[in-house]
Amino acid sequence: MDVDARHAEELAAQLRAELVERRRTEAAAGRSADGDLEDAVRVLVDERAAILPSPVRAGLRARILRDTVGLGPLEQLLDDPEVEEVMVNGPAEVYVERRGRVETTDVHFADETELRNAIDRILAPLGRRVDELSPMVDARLEDGSRVNVVIPPLAVDGPALSIRRFGAARPGPGELLELGTLSARMHEMLEQAVVGRRSILVSGGTGSGKTTMLNALSSFIGPHERVVTIEDAAELRLRQRHVVRLESRPPSVEGRGEVTIRDLLRNALRMRPDRIIIGEVRGPEALDLLTALNTGHDGALSTVHANSPEDALRRLETLALMAGVGLPHEAIREQVLRGVDLVAHLERRSDGTRLVTEIAEVVRAAGGVAVRAIAAQG
């Protein structure tokens, strides 16, 4: 940061502190402090920085407003459409992901207090909060982006904040074909599978593009089908008209009011769905999904964290066992065999590209259930 920029930042911080003090004094004296904030900032800057050129004063006003009601230094990063994710590791370290690559930035917060203020401004409109009693929070922003926060004492080096962005537009199958994520054969195979109401599990690691692929596969669903989506944070953007979107709810600070994916899935079965799409299977709801797939609710789509198609099935079995209903392992494997038809596996390469490396069919084997690759690339 050059000297001029550093001085501008320091001056903006001083003026913002004076602005806060002025409005606090007005409120204490019984005078309304709810006037137009932009006007108050303009008056303050014109008073204290009248000798500065007009463009510099305009920059100061924008910076003060940004740090007062916006997201502080993160605003400039979130204004960049190429930024896919923002990762804050304490006030002094901010990273971004662009085109699948993680990069460091010269953006930082003045101190931990400024970072906590920005976090509070993010969470307040969502009706969520983070404090010593509840030091972690995972929430969805209005634009569909996902925010995760962990504060001390759990985060040793200061508050950790990540914002995973999800724009209004999602690449469809045709765009994924152009990007090379899908081969032409895979595109045709997946389209036929969705239209034919085969149940598909999308597997892969974190950031491999599972949700994007799930959203693309949903475009093959007929326009007249009733679709129910179930997610921890509503990220899917389906193009069909007849869509019911359900989102889980964490417990309150008092530990009440939680609604799990499992609760939503059980309820969804009573909503006359033609299709059920689960954003991610990560717990005992796996058993309810397998039960649904074996009782006439075919054509479901979901994702799971796994390193390969075979690992995806093993993880599904393990998650189903977490339901704790006492079913023998062999019975769950039989439900996996009868309920899941295909596994599409994604990988994220070192250059940031995402690739469907394999589409595998679920088949019976001597050990109970296995996969057989029917398409591969990369």
Structural summary, described in words:
It contains 12 helices and 14 strands. With 378 residues, the protein is α/β, with parallel strands linked by helices. It starts with a helix and ends with a strand. The strands form 2 sheets. Strands 9-8-10-11-7-12-13-14 form an 8-stranded mixed sheet, with helices on both faces. The model has no long low-confidence stretch (mean pLDDT 85). It folds into 3 domains: 1-69, no CATH class; 71-167, Beta-Lactamase (2-Layer Sandwich), CATH 3.30.450.370; 173-376, Rossmann fold (3-Layer(aba) Sandwich). A hairpin with a 5-residue loop joins strand 12 (342-348) and strand 13 (354-365). Helix 9 packs parallel to helix 10 (285-293), helix 10 crosses helix 11 (309-321) and helix 10 packs across helix 12.
Helices and strands in order:
Layout: H1 3-28, H2 37-48, H3 54-69, H4 74-78, E1 83-89, E2 94-98, E3 101-104, H5 112-123, E4 136-140, E5 146-150, E6 160-164, H6 173-179, H7 184-195, E7 200-204, H8 210-218, E8 227-231, E9 243-247, H9 261-268, E10 275-278, H10 285-293, E11 301-305, H11 309-321, H12 329-339, E12 342-348, E13 354-365, E14 368-376
Parallel strand pairs: 7-11, 7-12, 8-9, 8-10, 10-11
Antiparallel strand pairs: 1-2, 1-6, 2-3, 4-5, 5-6, 12-13, 13-14
SSE string: HHHHEEEHEEEHHEHEEHEHEHHEEE
Task: Provide the low-confidence segments as ranges.
Answer: none
* Strand arrangement across the biggest beta sheet: 9-8-10-11-7-12-13-14
Counting structural domains, the number is: 3
Q: Roughly how much helix do the residues carry, as a percent range?
A: 25-40%
CATH topology description of the largest domain: Rossmann fold
Number of DSSP-assigned strands: 14
Q: What's the CATH superfamily of the largest domain, by name? A: P-loop containing nucleotide triphosphate hydrolases
Q: Major β-sheet, in short?
A: 8 strands, mixed
Distance between the ends: 42 Å
The CATH top-level class label of the largest domain? Alpha Beta
Assess the beta-strand content as a share of residues: 15-25%
Average pLDDT: 85
Category from helices, strands and their pairing: alpha/beta
